[in-house]
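Milestone M4 deliverable, item 7.
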Amino acid sequence: MTYNEVSHYQDDTVLAAQLNALTQSIWGITVLDGAPSDYVPFSMQTENEIVANVCVGQFDVVVNGIALPASMIQTVLTHESHRRKGLIRALFAPVQAHVANTTGRTFFTADQDKIDFYQQFGYQHRPIIDYFRWQQTPTSVNRDTLTTVKLLNEQERLKFEDAARHRTPVSDVFGFENKPWLLLWFVRHFLSANLYYWEARNVYLILRIDNGRLDLLDIVGQRIPGWSELLPVLPVAEATEVRSYFVPDKLHVQADPVYSETDRFFFDAAFPLPELICLPETQRG
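Output delivered:
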């Protein structure tokens, strides 16, 4: 069987539909839906079907207080009928050449059972923090200051997208700025019901209530409020476990890290290692 390598086709509707068919068949999601040029697919095609793929997303990250461009490996998958043929291995040559010609550094997360596979390409790995947690006793609660964002309303959607483009990183230890395309994709596909607006601070909160637990997934704004400032507007009505799915350095709160039992953080020699490795929930590609 003959395989053809195709790449940089995010604006090609035919090839994009083929990749979406692959991701739908395996993960049940669509990855190319008007994707920006910062999300570049590298694929193997046979006849009229994409059967293996690696995407490279380009981001502006902040690591230990330093802003720099970096690439994230994403959307690595192969159709079941075409596995164990070295297709993903073959794609990493053009993927790494692309990174060398653009940002010059790479990071990503993957299952820990992929350690041996990714080490062959020179990637190192470390444990990754899934979230930080602490117990919170309620103070005075004023929920009326948070409003649900309705993304189907064009005015509200455009306002949120503008805030995302001009956001400050939620963490200076490991955060993202300027290029919000992955954040917007996550919110559009999975978190639209979890998006709230705090008008008094012009800040968007992405949060989830789960069996009395409060999950802070991301904070989007030009200033990140501290925890004592946030607490009165959050739905903490009784003693609650709070989880922050990003490094809470700007919240100024004492929290315990909880490490992932399944995932690892991978990076190349050019990527500076954060003091604490925890990707915001909305940037986990």
